[in-house]
Specification:
With 202 residues, the protein is mainly alpha-helical. 66% of the residues lie in helices and 4% in strands. The protein is elongated, with a radius of gyration of 24 Å.
Length: 202
């Protein structure tokens, strides 16, 4: 009967102390966690640049630095909150000050990460009311789950405008399924037609 000699990797594993093995597993887990955090961070940065927010955030500090002034950010006075200065563009109202920009990004993240329909509806309503719908596929796809057909129509219209400029559409299969469902069940005829047209374009 032939002797099955273990390979060197198995021999090393047998020699290794249990504490070392746990340490190595812990390090591997940390690397995995860090890489997912890094990917999320990178995705957020990409979204910031794609929406033109980064330029808006950098313009003011550069101008003030050139004039030799210290950077100043608006402070809340008394009970009132700081009112966000906004500039209107095709992709929605993009805030000029950093506090409003942070608020907008938090709302966008809230829409994307919403785990139930109640929190999704609340986040979408707040984002739309304060800043309008952004040109962000992840957000627009989530808006399709909203109960308000006007918002869904607005979302699909934005997608249709974005489609020629977009190289890669996230979760294309899921998007097509949602559009098919809207095309069959929506009460608004215009929305049904637009959803069906958009599904065929994907």
């Amino acid at each position: 009967m032939a002797y099955d000699r273990p390979n060197w990797k198995e021999i090393d594993r047998m020699r290794e102390k249990p504490g070392r093995r746990k340490k190595r597993e812990r390090q591997n887990n940390e690397i995995r966690e860090n890489s997912s955090r890094y990917n999320k961070y990178k995705k957020d940065l990409d979204r910031l640049f794609d929406q033109g927010l980064a330029g808006e955030l950098l313009k003011k500090p550069v101008k003030e630095r050139d004039k030799g002034k210290e950077l100043s950010f608006p402070k809340a006075t008394g009970k009132g909150k700081v009112k966000a200065a906004v500039v209107t563009r095709k992709e929605g109202r993009i805030p000029k000050n950093s506090q409003a920009s942070t608020s907008r990004l938090k709302l966008i993240r809230g829409v994307i990460d919403a785990e139930d329909s109640v929190s999704l509806v609340k986040s979408v309503n707040e984002l739309n009311e304060k800043f309008g719908l952004p040109n962000d596929w992840e957000v627009l796809i989530r808006v399709l789950e909203h109960l308000d057909e006007k918002l869904v129509l607005q979302s699909i219209s934005k997608m249709k405008d974005l489609l020629p400029k977009t190289a890669k559409i996230p979760r294309r299969f899921t998007l097509r399924e949602r559009l098919r469902s809207i095309g069959q069940t929506a009460s608004d005829g215009e929305l049904r037609q637009l959803a069906t047209d958009m599904e065929e374009m994907l």
